[in-house]
């Protein structure tokens, strides 16, 4: 019994000794060395995928403006064989796959062959299979840039009594891409469809669509557009029919223009505007007719329609035809000898050297018959003389007493001398 205890004590002491740990470490190291020798001593194969394909044009082709527009996003795969430890750590970034494009010197579609190489020529592996795919199809062309106007094509309906118009947030678009594709573009359209019926303003995003000369839609995969959609603001306003009103300058205060003397065509137009504006607008003025240019005859004018601020003319007419018939009025020629100067600056005096003016006066028969030259004063306005001195010729207007329906037709000037007083 004592002998067994002694043996166990010696064994325990040996296990706990440094010599035992040294022997164990040597055995473990030997096992690891044998395993590594067996493992790395054999070649192995591995398929590597998703290797980016590089398409490189010659320097001359690039300098001439050629670019690859499609086919530059291919991925390739291949099999490598080599040392197990080396192959096991390989990634797609350790291999380069290129498409042979050095011979390309013009635009077109090309089928290019692929070749692969190790990024580290000293790495212990070999490319052991063909590249998949072995070729790629690419499209090469010259870059073209162009700006196009955008045509609006937003389709919608509005309630009766309302008017709508569409404004795009951008009127033009900048497009780049292959010359052969950009040259196909005939028009650019912002298109959208709005369901239902509108009675208030709205904003929508309209799609940008490209069309060729035959009206066919152009695929934009190879094109770069500033934007794919554009905001379309649809302004919806109530509309109202308003009359067109003739206006006059230098109209005699006592002359009534009756309905049988004047006609307007069209007599009304449609306006669109806010309720506040339309509620205060029953008519719009036409450009004025100067009575000093008229005689007792029939005259026809094409006059501009003067649209109020914040309103839109939706009748597609910007002028109206006005027929003015003054043939029922009378005329008389008189020699005016009375002159009056007005607008003379302080410190100046004026002497009218014009003795008389022969004028033609028009008006109603009752006033023309009784009118005499003494009833007419020629008024010379020198307010625009701006300090002039000496003999000058200035415009004349006429004051007519006892002739509120009468006017002098034509333009006149009178001579006078201005001096410092």
Structure description:
The protein is mainly beta. It has helices at 2-15, 18-40, 59-63, 84-87, 179-182, 275-279, 365-370; strands spanning 43-57, 66-70, 75-83, 95-101, 108-118, 125-127, 135-158, 162-168, 172-178, 187-198, 202-211, 224-225, 229-245, 248-249, 262-265, 268-273, 283-285, 289-290, 298-304, 311-313, 319-325, 330-336, 338-342, 348-352, 357-363, 376-381, 390-400, 407-408, 412-420. It has a 16-stranded mixed β-sheet that branches. Strands 23-26-27-29-24 form a 5-stranded mixed β-sheet, with no helix packed on it. The protein is elongated. The termini are far apart. The model has no long low-confidence stretch (mean pLDDT 90).
Short summary of the structure?
This protein has 421 residues and is mostly beta strands. It has helices at 2-15, 18-40, 59-63, 84-87, 179-182, 275-279, 365-370, and strands at residues 43-57, 66-70, 75-83, 95-101, 108-118, 125-127, 135-158, 162-168, 172-178, 187-198, 202-211, 224-225, 229-245, 248-249, 262-265, 268-273, 283-285, 289-290, 298-304, 311-313, 319-325, 330-336, 338-342, 348-352, 357-363, 376-381, 390-400, 407-408, 412-420.
């Amino acid at each position: 019994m004592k002998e067994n205890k002694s043996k166990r004590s010696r064994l325990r002491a040996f296990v706990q000794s440094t010599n035992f740990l040294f022997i164990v470490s040597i055995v473990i190291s030997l096992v690891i060395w044998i395993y590594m020798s067996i493992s790395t001593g054999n070649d192995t194969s591995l398929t590597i995928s998703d290797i980016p394909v590089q398409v490189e044009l010659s320097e001359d082709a690039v300098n001439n403006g050629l670019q690859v527009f499609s086919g530059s996003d291919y991925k390739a795969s291949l099999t490598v064989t080599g040392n197990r430890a080396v192959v096991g750590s390989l990634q797609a970034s350790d291999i380069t796959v290129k498409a042979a494009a050095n011979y390309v010197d013009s635009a077109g579609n090309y089928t290019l062959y692929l070749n692969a190489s190790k990024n580290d020529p000293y790495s212990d592996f070999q490319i052991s299979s063909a590249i998949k795919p072995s070729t790629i199809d690419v499209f090469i062309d010259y870059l073209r840039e162009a700006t196009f106007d955008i045509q609006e094509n937003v389709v919608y309906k509005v309630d009766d009594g309302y008017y709508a118009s569409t404004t795009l947030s951008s009127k033009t678009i900048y497009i780049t891409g292959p010359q052969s594709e950009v040259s196909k573009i005939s028009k650019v359209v912002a298109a959208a469809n709005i369901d239902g019926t509108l009675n208030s303003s709205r904003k929508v995003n309209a799609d940008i669509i490209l069309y060729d000369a035959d009206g066919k839609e152009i695929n934009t995969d190879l094109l770069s557009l500033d934007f794919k959609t554009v905001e379309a603001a649809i302004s919806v306003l109530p509309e109202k029919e308003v009359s067109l009103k003739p206006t006059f300058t230098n109209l005699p205060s006592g002359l009534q223009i009756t309905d049988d003397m004047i006609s307007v065509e069209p007599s009304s137009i449609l306006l669109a505007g806010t309720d506040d504006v339309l509620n205060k607008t029953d008519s719009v003025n036409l450009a004025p007719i100067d009575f000093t240019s008229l005689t007792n005859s029939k005259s026809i004018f094409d006059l501009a329609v003067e649209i109020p601020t914040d309103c839109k003319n939706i009748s597609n007419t910007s002028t109206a035809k006005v027929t003015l018939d003054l043939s029922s009025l009378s005329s008389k020629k008189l020699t005016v000898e009375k002159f009056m100067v007005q607008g003379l600056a302080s410190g100046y005096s004026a002497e009218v050297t014009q003795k008389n003016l022969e004028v033609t006066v028009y008006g109603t028969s009752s006033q023309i018959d009784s009118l005499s030259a003494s009833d007419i004063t020629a008024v010379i306005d020198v307010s625009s003389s701006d300090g002039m001195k000496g003999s000058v010729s200035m415009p004349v207007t006429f004051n007519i007493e006892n002739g509120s329906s009468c006017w002098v037709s034509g333009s006149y000037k009178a001579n006078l001398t201005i001096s410092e007083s």
